[in-house]
Specification:
The protein is an alpha+beta fold. 15% of the residues lie in helices and 33% in strands. It folds into three domains: 171 residues, 6 Propeller (Neuraminidase); 130 residues, TolB, C-terminal domain (Neuraminidase), CATH 2.120.10; 261 residues, Rossmann fold (3-Layer(aba) Sandwich). The chain contains ten helices and 36 strands. The strands form eight sheets. The chain has an eight-stranded mixed β-sheet, sandwiched between helices. Strands 1-2-3-4 form a four-stranded antiparallel β-sheet, with no helix packed on it. Strands 5-6-7-8 form a four-stranded antiparallel β-sheet, with no helix packed on it.
């Protein structure tokens, strides 16, 4: 591994995203969403404990000898590290935290030591740790109030890279750590306000991401010998350029949408600046990874709320078939050192990712099932991509979950689910909360309003400086499509969302007070002035890009106050629920405190839950149980309890 993990999300605007259920998968041959359900069968209703008893698994990594797989699981209610033989058997716990979530990074290249990462109570100040062969652990980044992340292994496997902002909390430097003894050396001091992206095989060159706006970016090349920096992607207009990895021949793999709406995968000679196309399609190429033996290239495409994966043989240029698995997305792929075995997850809207392994050209084997055996997947609902024309004719996509039994004679209430971002994307992933609501009789439409990623650069930028206005009107307009299904009661449609989706919920209740019957705001922004003034220090490299998209709190104060729900909370007349993590560094608790107080002053029914040990996104099962159960009870009281509209 030589590619540095992006400190910048898939798109810069994902900075305010927070719901882990919307995380883009890492690949995906997918099944049709039009799965027929057995006729004349009573659908079982599940309590939240049953649905949350599904395991959440993440991070598959094969051991150096290919005999075991490292992964993280919330089997105890808190994410911990486990390993399991590739031949199957019992998973063995490697960590036993009862408080802070632990996520695996990698086995060491030639032994069983493990790198992992953890923060403290959701504060996002992750450190990088090593678990030694004797089971003891060591913090490799023991700095206070700093954030660190793993940056990949050196080509000779004698060292690895870690990025940390301990020197200057605004910017991330790169340190090289020795595999033996962990002595470290500073190899890049970041004075440029950029994001380290990839390191060349000979460690001479470092590719750096320079963010101009949320839609426009460049790749800089830093020469460690000469200390020179040059822009590899100088351009005119709005173009997104992102480094992917250095190839074995020293050229740079990168993605760019310079020639059209969608990003292609290209390869550049840094000396000449000449580029050739490696892979392109009619969707965004979002990533590519060399197999450890450099014989193949794995290409990831964001295709209409799914991720498609293509494996290319670099010698012949031919595509290699992936293992046959049950219908769903293949995600989280990792290769053995010889490139012949894979570990991966298979997931769908009805089931979270289960851990699988396979030999190329061989049979796949499930190692860990994530689905609670008490759940019949036929009781759940597969999402379906549904589009509608918005108020100005722009086509808006989204994922619709329709409850079993919904009909013209038995219309159901619905919730419009707004993702985080602003530039996030709702995808065909499993969401415990969505399935919980649908299983209890609510339709859910996970809208990808204008400004969402994955649908071209024009669509992505269509809400810039129009937040809470142009995008909010898409959300309101979706009600017409839902009503047109003939199965949804138009008078019983609410809105729900987390982070930026929480903002959209508060904005809807404030600026379109008659549009939705109820709103559920999950750690949403309500005062853009405070949020933009108090962004975490480690976002400094993208501060101006955020200002360019959303507004500068000084020069755009009037507009930001106009679109901030807090300053117009007197308009809130519909029931509202708010969920908040006390340790959230992005949307501070005071945001939720104030909007709740303001709504209560209107005499509006308000329910407020604060989790003292969570940050921006809830990861502890007990907190999810309490929060999701409360959401359903709130909706049953204030939305489902209303009389349905007449046919």
């Amino acid at each position: 591994m030589r590619t540095l993990p992006a400190l910048l999300p898939l798109a810069l605007a994902l900075a305010l995203a927070g719901c882990s259920d919307s995380t883009p998968p890492a690949s995906a041959p997918t099944a049709s969403t039009e799965s027929a359900q057995p006729a004349q069968r009573e659908i079982k209703r599940y309590d939240i404990d049953t649905l949350l008893s599904n395991l959440r698994l993440t991070g598959a990594d094969l051991s150096p000898d290919g005999s075991k797989v490292l992964f993280a699981s919330n089997a105890t209610g808190v994410f911990n590290l486990y390993e399991i033989p590739v031949t199957g058997g019992e998973a063995v716990a490697l960590t036993n935290s009862t408080t802070d979530a632990h996520f695996g990074v990698d086995y060491f290249p030639n032994d069983g030591r493990v790198l992992y990462t953890a923060d403290q109570g959701g504060n996002e100040l992750n450190h990088v740790y090593v678990r030694e062969l004797d089971g003891s652990t060591r913090d490799l980044t023991p700095c206070e109030k700093c954030k660190a992340s793993f940056g990949g292994w050196a080509d000779d496997e004698q060292s690895f890279f870690v990025m940390t902002n301990e020197r200057d909390e605004r910017y991330f430097d790169i340190y090289e750590y020795a595999v033996d003894g962990y002595a470290r050396t500073l190899i890049f001091q970041n004075e440029l306000g950029v994001f380290p992206s990839a390191i060349s095989r000979d460690k001479r060159y470092i590719a750096l991401g320079k963010v101009n706006t949320t839609s426009d970016s460049d790749i800089l090349l830093f020469d460690r010998e000469t200390k020179e920096v040059k822009n590899l992607t100088a351009h005119e207009g709005v173009v997104s350029n992102e480094a992917v990895a250095f190839a074995p021949d020293g050229e740079l793999l990168y993605t760019s949408n310079k020639e059209g709406e969608f990003s292609r995968l290209l390869k550049m000679n840094p000396a000449t600046g000449e580029s050739t196309v490696v892979f392109e399609t009619n969707w965004d190429v979002v990533n590519a990874v060399y197999t450890p033996d450099d014989s193949r290239l794995l290409v990831y495409v964001n295709a209409d709320a799914r991720t498609e994966l293509t494996l290319i043989d670099l010698a012949s240029g031919e595509k290699i078939a992936l293992p046959s698995v049950p219908a769903g997305d293949i995600t989280g792929v990792d290769f053995s050192k010889d490139g012949q075995r894979l570990a991966f997850y298979v997931a769908s809207s009805k089931s979270p990712g289960s851990l699988w392994t396979a030999e190329l050209g061989g049979q796949a084997q499930q190692l860990v099932s994530s689905l609670n055996p008490a759940i019949n997947p036929d009781d759940l609902v597969e999402g379906e991509v549904v589009r509608f024309n918005s108020y100005d004719g722009l086509e808006i996509p989204g994922v619709l979950y329709m409850p079993h039994g919904a009909s013209a004679e038995a219309k159901v209430p619905a919730m419009v689910w707004v993702h985080g971002g602003p530039g996030g994307q709702s995808r065909l992933n499993y969401s415990a909360l969505i399935q919980y609501l649908v299983n209890h009789g609510y339709a859910v439409y996970a809208i990808n309003n204008r400004g969402s990623s994955g649908y071209g650069k024009t669509f992505f930028a269509a809400d810039d400086r129009k937040h809470g206005e142009a995008d909010l009107d898409d959300v309101v307009e979706s009600k017409k499509m839902l009503a047109a299904t003939g199965k949804i009661d138009p008078e019983r449609i609410g809105i729900i969302g987390g982070s930026y989706g929480g903002y959209m919920t508060a904005a809807a209740l404030t600026f379109r007070p008659d549009a939705f019957a109820v709103g559920v705001n999950i750690f949403g922004v309500t005062n853009w002035l405070r949020t933009l003034e108090s962004i975490p220090p480690w976002w400094e490299a993208q501060r101006q890009a955020l200002y360019a998209e959303l507004g500068d709190p000084v020069t755009d104060k009037e507009r930001l106050m106009r679109i901030s729900p807090l300053f117009h909370a007197k308009n809130i007349t519909k029931p509202m629920m708010v969920l908040q993590g006390a340790n959230d560094p992005r949307v501070l608790q005071v945001e939720s405190d104030e909007i709740v107080a303001a709504a209560k002053a209107n005499g509006v029914p308000v329910e407020y839950i604060v989790f003292p040990d969570e940050g921006h996104g809830f990861v502890k099962r007990e907190n999810e149980r309490k929060g999701y159960e409360a959401v359903l009870a709130f909706l049953d009281t204030h939305l489902k309890g209303q009389a349905p509209a007449a046919n």
